[in-house]
Amino acid sequence: MQTENKLILAPLAGYTDKAMRDIALSMGADITVTEMVSAEGLARDGEKTKELLERADGEKRLVVQLFGPDKDPFHRCIPNLMEYNPTWIDINCGCPVPKVVKTGAGSALMKDKKKIREIVETLATETKLPVSVKFRLGWDSSSLNYLEFAEEALKGGAFSLTLHARTRAQGYEGKADRSAFSALSKEFGKDAVLYASGDIFTPEDAIECMEEYGMDGVMFARGAIGNPFIFRETREYLSNGSYTLPSISERIETAMLHYEKMKKYYGENIAGREMRKHAMAYIKGVPGASRCKKALTSAITEEEYRDAFSLLEE
């Protein structure tokens, strides 16, 4: 099943806020997904939860990722969710973080596949919106149930599936098993839009997942942190078979634009603190990065960020 939405910024807690989504879209992302949003928090009208649903400037399509342990909080959050006019809803069945898993949410849902069918059915029926599911290979190597899980999600009415090709037990360690993409595509390629996730750090990785393993598109997660250029590069590679890496000066200017957007959305103090992790990623592998990182640890203002970046070597 082909789709025009091939390149997606994956949901990343603590990262894919309005500013990062804004930057990714400007670099060629087809779709961006919000940070993980608690269905329970949204149902309870939590202000911090609702802030995660605000659109970036120019973000025409809002894809919201929700997490929860069963259909109940998803049902109860719908009135508040619909106030934000989402384009589609993604369900998180892949988060391996203990504080999420112990509540029965995230990858814990893979232990009881009937729950995902109920959750998808609830959202699809009550919102009339497209619903997608992001999941893993299974809980651990002895319970690789991703194909059965995918089938239940589709029976509930999901239109799209994203597979992170690791188990929950692996977390983000080890290597993603791309052969699972082939199995998923062979089984459900005609029934759903399929996205690959896990260890997609280069345009070559993205193209391989699509052309060799039969996926319709990819979700860039860690590969897009400090590297929104990957969307542009992948588009170039799809069109021309080659791509151009950003210069150091472009990295710096894009990082500063990212900072300016954060400042506009959240104010200087929050932007100054939250931008540090992004800034460190923007300069990864650049000559002079160690001196720059030391300066970035205390940066808050635009001037302090520019001074830190001036320590890099062209």
Question: Care to give the gist of this entry?
Answer:
The chain has 314 residues and is an alpha/beta fold. The chain has two domains: 7-240, TIM Barrel; 248-309, Non-ribosomal Peptide Synthetase Peptidyl Carrier Protein, Chain A (Orthogonal Bundle). The chain is built from 14 helices and eight strands.
What does the model show?
With about 325 residues, the protein is an alpha/beta fold. Helices cover about 45% and strands about 15% of the residues. The protein has an 8-stranded parallel β-barrel with strand order 1-2-3-4-5-6-7-8, surrounded by 6 helices. It contains 14 helices and 8 strands. It has 2 domains: about 5-240, Alpha-Beta Barrel (TIM Barrel); about 250-310, Non-ribosomal Peptide Synthetase Peptidyl Carrier Protein, Chain A, CATH 1.10.1200. Strand 6, helix 8 (about 180-190) and strand 7 (about 195) form a beta-alpha-beta unit.
Topology:
Blueprint: E1 7-9, H1 18-26, E2 31-38, H2 39-43, H3 47-51, E3 63-67, H4 71-82, E4 88-93, H5 98-101, H6 113-127, E5 131-136, H7 146-156, E6 160-164, H8 179-188, E7 193-197, H9 203-211, E8 217-220, H10 229-240, H11 248-266, H12 268-282, H13 289-296, H14 302-309
Parallel strand pairs: 1-2, 1-8, 2-3, 3-4, 4-5, 5-6, 6-7, 7-8
Helix pairs in contact: 1-11, 4-6, 6-7, 7-8, 9-10, 11-12, 11-14, 13-14
